[in-house]
Specification:
38% of the residues lie in helices and 24% in strands. With 352 residues, the chain is α+β, with helices and mostly antiparallel strands. The structure holds adenosine-5'-triphosphate and magnesium ion (3 copies).
Length: 352
């Protein structure tokens, strides 16, 4: 009999829309070729307000690729659709907070059913840029200079705020990047070039998250590597992103034609294995499982490779970097989702 796969998508996140498109692509791949003999997909849609929907509503969102219009229903959030009881394996296709950050992974762990991707620890460490960078530093992976701060330091005491800005200016200089620690898709991120911009960006970032990070800005090419596996993960070919905007911000990411992906990236021969090695190291440093996309800055002038971040559930639409990197490495989209399910089963069996 077929394995009943619960496809979880949407979510209480700024990346809700992307998640639906990723899930649609994955659902297609699960019902094509040999996968259609092995898997039976049941969609579960998490509305923007956190309410779970199954059945026709979920199927309709998946088919249309668009969120439900009326999200006002405030049903009991903990009343899971009855279909959840019949699921053999979960495939959480959620990006950003409340899905890529260990929260859903905790719930699925308690359900004692295998699920695709990183567990609680890997997801949480991979989502929080401060925890992530601590893990990378411990593993000896080169990265930009940064300063971790809290909302409290920005909002609660007007006397310490100017001193905080002085410290940032002295240690990181301009331009620097101000980021909420737990987000994605560049939401809440600002590139700042003056004291005035710094103050405004810190205030804005504090409205998104209790934890904030400020990083020294680098001038570099942006390259990405896909990782697949559990204890012995493999790295893909390297991809590069190019764009004309100031940095890879939300608009550049999601406006058709604003950014270009080059796979494989045109890089010196000796640089490629170095990036792949660092990508695997980063995956293991956060306790990743299944999949991750690891993003780097490549400083052409010096040959330096600096890690930017890891995404434990990267964009997974048919045109996204992650599946395309595997495609060019020799694993098709349909094979990729099959392998991810097999990795989930393997990992689950080792947890017992
Ligand atoms: P994702 O959607 O990949 O999860 P994110 O929201 O986690 O992204 P980052 O990858 O941290 O955000 O930053 C977004 C973009 O901002 C980068 O792709 C890069 O263009 C720019 N950027 C971030 N940090 C730096 C830096 N320290 N120096 C130069 N550019 C940076
Ligand atoms: Mg990210
Ligand atoms: Mg992300
Ligand atoms: Mg990024």
């Amino acid at each position: 009999s077929k394995l009943r796969v619960g496809l979880l998508f949407g979510g209480r996140s700024g990346e809700h829309e992307v998640s639906i498109i990723s899930a649609k692509a994955i659902a297609n791949a699960l019902s094509s070729g040999e996968n259609s003999q092995k898997y039976e997909v049941t969609p579960f849609y998490i509305q923007k307000n956190g309410v779970w929907q199954a059945g026709e509503t979920a199927q309709q969102v998946l088919t249309s690729g668009k969120p439900t219009e009326n999200d006002s229903q405030t049903a009991n959030l903990w009343q899971f659709p009855p279909q959840a009881a019949d699921i053999d394996l979960w495939f959480p296709v959620l990006h950003g907070p409340n899905g890529e950050d260990g929260t859903i992974q905790g719930l699925l762990t308690l359900m004692q059913v295998p699920f695709v991707g990183s567990g609680v620890l890997g997801s949480a460490v991979g989502m929080d840029k401060i925890a992530m960078k601590t893990a990378f530093a411990q593993a000896g992976i080169p990265q930009v200079k940064y300063k971790a701060i809290t909302r409290d330091q920005i909002w609660s005491n007007p006397c310490i705020f100017p001193k905080l800005c002085d410290e940032i200016e002295a240690s990181l200089g301009y331009p620097c990047f101000v980021k909420p620690a737990n987000l994605g898709s560049s939401v809440g991120i600002a590139k700042v070039r003056s004291r005035q911009e710094l103050e405004a960006a810190l205030d804005n970032a504090a409205s998104y998250d209790r934890r904030i990070i400020v990083e020294a800005g680098v001038v570099a090419r942006e390259v990405e590597c896909a990782v697949l596996g559990n204890d012995n993960p493999k790295a893909s070919v390297i991809g590069e992103i190019t764009f004309n905007s100031d940095f890879y911000d939300y608009e550049t990411k999601y406006t058709q034609g604003k950014a270009d992906l080059f796979i494989p990236a045109s890089l010196p021969k000796n640089i490629v294995p170095k990036i792949q090695e660092l990508a695997v190291k980063a995956f293991l440093a956060v306790d990743g499982a299944g999949l991750s996309r690891v993003d780097f800055f490549y400083v052409e002038a010096t040959g330096e490779i600096l890690i930017n971040e890891i995404n434990t559930f990267p964009g997974f639409t048919s045109t996204s970097m992650y599946p395309q990197l595997w495609e060019k490495t020799g694993i098709s989209f349909t094979e990729l989702v099959d392998q991810l399910i097999q990795l989930a089963i393997e990992r689950h069996s080792k947890l017992e």
